[in-house]
Design goal:
The chain is an alpha+beta fold. Helix content is about 30%, strand content about 25%. It contains 3 helices and 5 strands. Strands 1-5-4-3-2 form a 5-stranded antiparallel β-sheet. The chain is elongated, with a radius of gyration of 17 Å. One of its GO terms (cellular component) is Golgi apparatus. Keywords: Signal.
Length: about 90
């Protein structure tokens, strides 16, 4: 019984460590968008693709930048229909 308990706890710990993490950064004197961000769509104000590709989305709000993997930010059903321009 103890072995089963330990296995359950270890597997839950591994799942928690593998979960995508969002980051929050204060912008200070900087503004959005920054040089490594591209606007997603005109209708999504203050939402930007971060870096190369379309795996991370950032939201700029009141001198703060919140960045998350797109599946976490929108949910996997909505993220699949958000257009990605990888220029």
């Amino acid at each position: 019984m103890k072995t089963l308990m330990v296995l359950v706890l270890l597997s839950s710990l591994l799942c928690a460590l593998a979960a995508p993490i969002c980051s929050r950064r204060a912008l200070g004197n900087l503004s959005c968008p920054q040089e490594n961000q591209r606007q997603i769509q005109a209708g999504l104000k203050d939402h930007f693709w971060a870096g190369q590709g379309c795996k991370e989305i950032c939201y700029c709000h009141q001198r703060e930048l919140l960045c998350c993997p797109k599946d976490v930010f929108f949910g996997y059903k909505i993220a699949s229909v958000i257009p990605c321009d990888q220029q």
